[in-house]
Amino acid sequence: MTKIIENLKQIQHQIEIAKQRVNAQQTVEIIAVTKEVDVNRTEEAIEAGLIHLGENRPEGLINKLDSINSAVSWHYIGSLQTRKVKQVIDQIDYLHSLDRLSLAEEIEKRATKRVKCFVQVNVSGEESKHGLTREQALDFVKQLEQFPKIEVVGLMTMAPFTEDETMIRQVFKQLKQLQQEVSQLNIPNVPCTELSMGMSNDYEIAVEEGATFVRIGTALVG
Description:
By secondary structure, this protein is an alpha/beta fold. The protein has helices at 2-22, 39-47, 58-67, 85-88, 101-110, 134-143, 165-183, 203-208, 218-221; strands at residues 29-33, 52-55, 73-76, 94-98, 115-120, 150-156, 194-196, 213-216. The protein contains nine helices and eight strands. Strands 7-6-5-4-3-2-1-8 form an eight-stranded parallel sheet. Belongs to the pyridoxal phosphate-binding protein YggS/PROSC family.
């Protein structure tokens, strides 16, 4: 318990310093990525004050939901198979991996409430990562106007796992530019004001470039 509190305080401090470096004003929400930890550790995270939790598999999410009754926001941060949408879509508050029309269609069909979604963009172009290209993302969000149960709150990306800070920063900078372009389209269900980017190794750079949600696992909950 104490260790998570210490980690959280340290991360919050680093986020504030990152914001001060660039005179950033945005609110930054910390998502505790609990996909690799058990229910007890997850409950410790909640007791430490974390209210945003991230899972990447339906089984892991459902297991936690069955055991945890706290009022928290659940974020699905992994790639979601179309056939598994019905298992999770009414259980989550945010989906961070909307990346294809077939997934949007299944969400529209299965959801009983409006779902806050991040469109996943593969800014770095790495073959190992899911997500749309910049050009595809713009076309994709225009098509989402036909799905009233989907609210595109923002964009999500993952930077390359590298020590090259310039490369990482460029990825985050490009996502911010794209988010502004999408927001200016003025599509009713696509406000696109948020940026989900930055993990344990690069969240400070992400915050400097405009992140409003950072997804932190190892550095926070182990």
